[in-house]
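## Example pair
The file below holds two records. Each record gives the amino-acid sequence first, followed by its structure token line.
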Amino acid sequence: MAAPRYLAHISEDSQEQTVLEHLTGTAELCAQFAAAFGAEGQGRLAGMAHDIGKYSDAFQARLRGAPQKVDHSTAGAYECWQQGQPFAAFAVAGHHGGLPDGGGGRADSPDQGTFSGRMERAASGKLESYAVWKQELSLPAAPLPPRSVSIPDGMFFTRMLYSCLVDADFLDTALLRTTGAARCRSPR
């Protein structure tokens, strides 16, 4: 029996892109973009992590037409956060809806949309299971900016990394669209 294929996108003409293909393509583009400001490793990490939540059965059902919304970006953000990678974590958390509110703290409930609330939701097991990602890939190590980076510089760095990720994600997805499909019916 063949292992299940986990898909990131299905085009209108039924072309499929696996999650691994999408993560790899996005990671390479994001690394190229982030290299312009010395953050190639951070770009590769953010690109590889951004859609690992698509490994959940709930997302796979959504891709095939189930009506429920699935939070797939918090999963990758949480994995980055667990590795001590706050810049990539924020970029990944916001890659569809914009950078999350960094305010609040550990007292934020899992139901809150703040970054802390989302990390609490993941830590308390309230995301759809996406653990199968570990069978297909591992997240790359990435150097952090120097500790001497000020808070404003760190915020700017996060915005730059976020921009690289959003552009890379869009372009990699567009490649599926331009290989014969007029539109992609992927739930972002």
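Second record, same layout:
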Amino acid sequence: MMRRRRFVRAGATWLITIGALVGAVFWLDRLPAGDAAPAAPAAVAEAELVARGAYLARVANCAGCHTARGGAPLAGGRALATPFGVVFAGNLTPDPATGLGSWSADDFWRALHLGRGRDGRRLVPAFPYTETTRMTRADSDALFAWLRTLPPASVPARPHELRGVYGTQLALAAWRVFFFRPGVWQDDPGRSAEWNRGAYLVNGAGHCAACHGGRNLLGAAGDDFAGGFLPTGEDYAPSLARADQAGVHDWPLEEVMALLRYGAAPRGRATGPMAEVVRGSTSHLSDADLRAMAVYLQSLPHEAAPPRRPIERDEPAREHAARGARVYADHCAACHGSTGEGGATPDGRLVIPALAGQRAVTLDPPANLVRSIAHGGFGIASAREPRPWGMPPFAHVLSDEEIAAVATFLRQAWGADAAPVSAPEVARWRGRALD
């Protein structure tokens, strides 16, 4: 009898403790007192407000996630893979039953600023409220005003398919306690107006850190632009702080702007998910905003590349690279040149990227290089290049061993000295083609 009582007391103690912890988590992640959104800014002309909202939707690339392939614009339904399961983007059209038709401007502000739905429920952080929390109320209202002008589309929300407890309100509350604080944008008085504008665009609506900040084991993005794999685990977003990855501190400002405008510059090209960002977002921005973003990106603290590990030069390694040279000669040299110099039009415009000296080739890890070889891709259509050249896929032509060999050759040819690529690494990184 006494043992049973001790067991009951111990169980009751654990239940009380667990209940207290759960209560503490929800209390720490409670809504602000009164749940009051700041007063809306002074009224502006409706047409001006809507135009500003349309522009902000481009800055934020809302359609990139909220438009399913073949679906109505911004009607949601697109599946977004994460390490914790699949998240389905919501319907942003003003449909009253399935979209934002019954939302108010205050509701929308709370979603951007606090990561809360209209009913107060916590939103999953695949929606980048960790960055949009920095947007001003005026910009939130403008974006909402534009969304209200879209044709309503009846697309019911699909429940997220998250594993285990990841989608529960308790898990989201605990995540937010550690990784989210509502923010209010404040200009840095020690910086120029142009720098502050660029910082606001990059860190707010542009939510660049959502990819280039990397993700920890619990899915929280860093704020140092140190780079990392995207949630799918296939594409790698390079560091914006390292010169050997995607840092631009030593680029001419015009080249940074060209990369954001056209997806192509003498020292680099946008590929994969970044090409989608350029196509749907930065190619539509004003010159002034692109310049502001470039100024800010160039000001990021830059890090030296870590020393590379010594490259094995034994007979198997030499044969591996030699096999890659043969694959390159058979499948790549006709377009990219016998010495990796790229291909130019008769008037001298480089339309097929050079591979010699390209940091995208020597990037560690070589996931993006592997995926480019396996799945190919097209450049970005622009006013400067309305019909860009494309890279055909080779996944159906080359084996994993051959892709590894040609990737190794590229990473060690023409003065490069990067680590080799193995067939198991190709199998790991080639993944699926972009949707």
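Notes on the second record: The longest helix spans residues 2-28. Confidence is low (pLDDT under 50) at residues 7-22.
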